[in-house]
Write a structure and sequence with these properties.
This protein is mainly beta. The relative contact order is 0.17. Helix content is 4%, strand content 37%.
Length: 163
C-alpha cells in the first residue's frame, strides 16, 4: 500500500545561501522525498565561475536565482541574473551560466528522469538486427505476447502463429 507524500516546506533557500560557508560550492540541497515526480537542487557557483555551454536534450528546466548575481548566455544573447529572477530553459536549447563577483546561487526544478534501463544496442552500433517478433503478435487483436513460449493471446485467447 503506497502512501501519498505529505506536502510541506522542504528547504529555505534564503537560509541555505546565507548560511553557506565561503567554500561551499555545487549542490547545497537536493529534493529527496520518495515518490516524487520532480527533481530539484539548490546550486551555488563560486565567484566568476560558470556552467559551460550545453544542451539538455530531454528536460525543460526552471531556474530561480536565490542569491548572488550572474548571466545566462543563450543563442538569443546574454541576460543578467539577480535574486528573484525566474528563468525557463526549454529542452534542446544551448545555454551557459556565469556567476558574478559574489557568486551565484539558484534553485533548479525539472521533471525527474526515469531510472536507467537496459536496452539492446541499435544495429548501427554492432547490435545486429532486431529480433523478429511476428510469431508473438496475436492475429486477432494485435497484442504482443510477453512470454516467448506463449501459444495463446493473453488478451483475447486466440492461438498465436506457429513458430
Amino acid at each position: 500500500m503506497s502512501r501519498t507524500p505529505a506536502p510541506g516546506v522542504v528547504t529555505d533557500t534564503a537560509r541555505l545561501f546565507r548560511d553557506a560557508a565561503d567554500g561551499d560550492r555545487g549542490a547545497l540541497w537536493r529534493l529527496a522525498e520518495p515518490g516524487r515526480q520532480l527533481d530539484s537542487n539548490v546550486i551555488r557557483l563560486a565567484p566568476e565561475a560558470g556552467v559551460a555551454g550545453h544542451v539538455e536534450p530531454d528536460l525543460d528546466v526552471l531556474v530561480c536565482v536565490v542569491g548572488g548575481s550572474g548571466w545566462l548566455e543563450t543563442a538569443g544573447g546574454s541576460q543578467e541574473l539577480a535574486p528573484g529572477a525566474v528563468v525557463w530553459l526549454p529542452h534542446g536549447v544551448r545555454r551557459s551560466l556565469a556567476a558574478g563577483p559574489d557568486g551565484l546561487c539558484y534553485l533548479t526544478v525539472h521533471r525527474r528522469r526515469p531510472g536507467l534501463t537496459i536496452a539492446s544496442a541499435p544495429a548501427e552500433h554492432g547490435g545486429g538486427e532486431a529480433a523478429c517478433l511476428l510469431q508473438l503478435v496475436c492475429p486477432g487483436c494485435g497484442n504482443l505476447a510477453q512470454e516467448s513460449g506463449a501459444r495463446f493471446c493473453s488478451r483475447c485467447g486466440e492461438e498465436l502463429p506457429p513458430r
